[in-house]
Amino acid sequence: MVIDPGHGGKDSGTMGSKLKEKDVVLPVSLKVAEYLKQYASDIEVIFTRKDDRFIELDQRPIIANKAEADLFVSIHANAMPPGNPGVYGTETYVMGTKNEGRNFEVGKRENSVILLEEDYKEKYQGFDPESPEVNIMFEIMQEAYQENSIILAQNVEEQFSKRAGRKSRGVKQSSLWVLWNTAMPSVLIEIGYLTNPDEERDLGNEQVQDYIASAIFRAIRDYFEYVKTTEN
Ligand SMILES: [Zn+2]
């Protein structure tokens, strides 16, 4: 499987009052891999990044597809527009074209790193993360992977609320580039809102990061156990 810590390098992702998304999601991602190594060592983990480096968005699914990975888990932190500090909680996204309201905003923000790449116009062939027409490009759904993606997403949100003490905002759909381009079940996890002062403090706390990572680990472990039983 592939663990994809969001952003990195010149792409900070979103910002809280002091924390940068790229700096919060990396330690959580590394901890998930540590748990997997310790308690589910048969699950092989590949990282898209293990340090603070910039990776072009299209490379993330390419890394996973080249490795013929069986699962893609992208880890991010969320933000509200200024003036909405009260919103907090976790969300786990699967690929989808029902981009209503906030889900569209999250898709737009997480896709927008493309604009930092010089040759994005050729590379993404007219894909404009700032345009609502982006939805048209996502009409072909990954039907084959959708069911398993949703099962993992539900595991993650359940673990967050029942075992890690987070407020789950549920499983959602959005047209996210990295999910659309991975040829395997894939989810994008938003571990909390950096624009909520309490949650920002939590996400910067090593113990909370550990709870979040262990919740993601258990969700992945349970997912692979489920896949194994349905295959046999
Ligand atoms: Zn992000």
Average pLDDT number: 88
What would you say the CATH architecture is? 3-Layer(aba) Sandwich
N→C terminal distance: 20 Å
Taken together, the total number of domains comes to 1
In order across it, which strands form the biggest sheet?
A: 2-1-3-6-4-5
The CATH topology corresponds to Aminopeptidase
Largest sheet: 6 strands, mixed
**Number of separate helices:** 9
CATH superfamily: Zn-dependent exopeptidases
What small molecules does the structure contain? zinc ion
> Shape from CA axes?
globular
- Share of helical residues: 40-55%
Give the H and E element order.
EHEHEEHHHHEHEHH
Helix/strand-derived category reads: alpha/beta
Catalogue the unreliable spans.
135-141
| CATH class category | Alpha Beta
Output the keywords:
232 residues; Aminopeptidase; 6-stranded mixed beta sheet; globular; binds zinc ion
